[in-house]
Every structure is written in structure tokens, then in C-alpha cells.
Amino acid sequence: MPFDTDSLEAIVQELGVPVTRAPYAVYGHPVFELSVPCIALPGSSLAVILWPSIRRVDVRLLVPGRTVALIAATAREVHTVEIYHGVEVMFRRSGGSVLFVTRDGASAIAD
């Protein structure tokens, strides 16, 4: 499906977490945030920030006791979202690379 605000419901449903509207916007367009618990690192979570209007997805590993993300990744030029039920959400980028996020709080980028 295209990566736009209409894809939010499918993303949220697959990852099993609520979505909130960020307290900031980009060029007047909303930005959305999800917090996916990281099963492998109890107490940690992936902050998934969705910027549909500029075709961008950020993922940040947030660990208790740290004020900045332990690891961060940004995918630009995201055009498509693929849902693999029970497994992951994949964000396809122009040029063929992908960023994925699992409902267990894992993430990776593959070229």
C-alpha cells in the first residue's frame, strides 16, 4: 500500500501499539509516533516516527537511563508499506532498500 496517512491503521494494527500525533508538524502536516516495546531488551522500546507528508520514517532505540537514543535510523523516500501479518511492517524506499520494524521491537535496514 502507499505510505500515507491512510496506511497508519494497518501499521498500528500490525505492531499492536497505539499511535499518537507528535507535538510538532512538518510544513503544517502531522507527524505520528509509535512506541514498540523491545522484547530483547526489557524496559527498552523502539520509537517509530512516521512522516508521511515527506515520505520519511525514523526508528530510535530508547533505553532506560539514557537521554539520547542508543541507535537511530532514518529512511527517506519511503513510497510503499508492506504488512507481513504476525511478523513485521516493511517500509520500501526508492532505490530498492527497505526498513522494517517487528512487533517484538526489532528493526533493520537492508539495501
Describe what you observe in this structure.
The mean pLDDT is about 95. The protein has one helix and nine strands, in the order H-E-E-E-E-E-E-E-E-E. It is mostly beta strands and about 110 residues long.
Which descriptors apply to this entry?
mainly beta; five-stranded antiparallel β-sheet; four-stranded antiparallel β-sheet; 1 helix
Give, in spatial order, the strands making up the sheet with the most strands: 1-2-3-4-5
Strand content: over 45%
Shape estimate: globular
Helix content: under 10%
- Separation of the first and last Cα atoms: 20 Å
Q: Main beta sheet: strand number and arrangement?
A: 5 strands, antiparallel
Radius of gyration (CA) equals 13 Å
Instruction: Say how many strands there are.
Output: 9
How are the SSEs placed, and which strands pair?
Blueprint: H1 8-15, E1 19-26, E2 29-37, E3 45-51, E4 56-62, E5 71-75, E6 78-84, E7 88-93, E8 98-102, E9 107-110
Antiparallel strand pairs: 1-2, 2-3, 3-4, 4-5, 6-7, 7-8, 8-9
